Amino acid sequence: MNVRSVAVIGAGPAGAAAADALAKEQRFETVRVFDRRSLAGGTWVYTPDASLKIPDLRDLLEGNADSPVPVPSKLPAETPKCDAVNNQEVRYADTALHEHLHGNHVPSLFGGIAEPRGDGPGAPFKHREVVREWIEGVFVHNKLQKFLELNTTVERAEKKGSKWVLTLRKELGQRNYWWEEKFDALIVASGHYNVPWMPKIDGLVEYDAEFPGRILHAKHFRDGSRYHGKRVIVVGGSVSAYEIIGEVLPYAQQPVYASLRGDPDPAFGWKPWKDPHITVKKQITRLDSKSGRIYFEDDTYLDDVDHVIFGTGYTFSLPFLPVVQERIKHAYRRIPGIWQHTWNIDDPTLALIGMLNGGFTFRVYEWQAVAVARFFAGRSKPLPPVEEQREWERKRVAALRGGKAYYSIAPHHAEFFELLRDIAGKPGPGMPGRPFPSFDKAWADVWTGKVAENVQGWEQARKRSREGMDCKVRAKL
After folding, report:
1. What share of the chain is helix, strand, coil (3-state, %, to 5)?
2. What are φ and ψ of residue 179, in 5° steps?
């Protein structure tokens, strides 16, 4: 493998880790990091003026959201702006951050790419803007800004011969400017928090059409005060659902309803739901667009609901990468053809970083980035035979099918970290590159403590909410 030029799509935490690892190999003549936003930070760039709605719910449920845009036949080119290309809502370009979001990342698990700053005692989790600044700091402190090409959207990435050909677009006033650049290898670090995932529920599309604004996904949630006096159902059993309930609880009509398909995320358990102002319901089975009534699995129902907020996660979408997007459309919430969530099996000059879940966010991106950079530099161990990689995927699909369970590295954190470290190997004497240590069991203790801190924080927030509501009641009396 003779890789001299590498493109990175995305300037969020995964893209920052990739840029740093590639630079430290001192092997590549060209490294370019493209991001459609005006700031580094990826999904941590707050978009307060988002449209706050899904552009077409039927398209989303049928897997047709976030489609590729038409590209000029001859490049370079200039074209007028149009909604299909430039509308942020249609392109799912708004980020999934609400006003008061704090990242559930612990500074000691950030790894070596940044120097995290504290917010004082008792603040293990950082406000969204602090996290974004950390990510931007990777580029600034490590002198990687020269790699950045912001306000630039990668509209197509296709392998032609031995090169990855990227079709790029930048807005210039009322026009779009398009051009191409070619690379030996490609890293996709664009994240997986762009396109919402919502369950297919009888009557959902019709209900949304009849009552516009009632159906909302967590991606478009911004502030709990917007739900003052409203009757709210929050759907989902993981972090985003917990956080949204905590945000709306001081304002919404009591109780707030939590609709769960089964048990909540085992990492957090039932503690966040144990509140006198929260009523837990079974999963929603039907929405009646004529009466507005919402039915649950246990045959109970609710009337006069103002908002149903789905904290049900996201699905993968890579519309700029046709060869992979076609695979995604025929699979259940996973990216087929990828070994160990990182390397494209058919052509390992394509790698993915950050398309996984299950803990140690940011640090695991760094481990992936170093392994990929050393592989592209020709300094790593070879990847296993293709058939062995396919067998890994076959077994995982058979056991887990897809969804969060498939792309989660939990509870096998140590095995995943050590696999990446083994492939990367150590830099030889006098050779560039970043060594990285063995998996430290203490990290698992820190991660477990993070979960406890999260639950404790939610409980404290609920307590403050109850005290505030009690004060309001006494004031009325």
Report:
1. 35, 20, 45
2. -155, 175
* Contact (Cβ atoms closer than 8 angstroms) between residue 185 and residue 164: yes
DSSP string, 4-49: -EEEEE--SHHHHHHHHHHHHHT--SEEEEE-SSSSS-GGGS--TT
CA distance linking residue 320 with residue 386, whole number of Å: 25
The beta strands (E) that lie in 223-283 are given as 232-235, 256-259, 278-281
- Eight-class DSSP state of 195: E
140, 27 contact by CB (below 8 A): no
CB of 412 within 8 A of CB of 359? no
pLDDT in tens, 121-153: 344 567 788 889 989 999 999 999 999 999 999
Mean pLDDT, all residues of the chain: 88
Residue 261's alpha-carbon distances to 233, 238, 242, 258, 312, in angstroms, are 13, 11, 14, 10, 10
pLDDT in tens, 162-212: 999 999 999 999 999 999 999 999 999 999 999 999 999 999 999 999 999
> In the beta sheet, which residues pair with residue 31?
6
Q: What are phi and psi of 89, to 5 degrees?
A: -65, -50
What is the Cα Rg of the chain in Å? 23
Domains of the chain and CATH, by start: 5-56+67-195+316-439 (3.50.50.60), 198-312 (3.50.50.60)
Provide the 3-class DSSP secondary structure of residue 474.
Answer: helix
Please determine, for residue 30, whether its predicted confidence score (pLDDT) is greater than 60.
yes
Nearest to 248 by CA among 207, 204, 216: 216
Tell me which residue has tokens 């919404």: 252
As given in the structure block, the two tokens for residue 143 are: 């002198």
163-172/152-160 β-pairing:
antiparallel
Asked whether residue 476 carries a pLDDT value surpassing 50, the answer given is: no
User: CA-CA distances (angstroms) from residue 245 to 49, 268, 331, 374?
Assistant: 22, 15, 31, 44
Q: How many CB atoms neighbour CB 378 within 10 A?
A: 11
Q: How many CA atoms lie within 13 A of 315 on its CB side?
A: 25
pTM for this structure? 0.90
Neighbours of 186 (CB within 10 A): 26
Q: At 71, is the secondary structure helix, strand, or coil? A: coil
Sign of CA dihedral 34, 35, 36, 38: negative
Identify the three-state secondary structure at position 317: coil
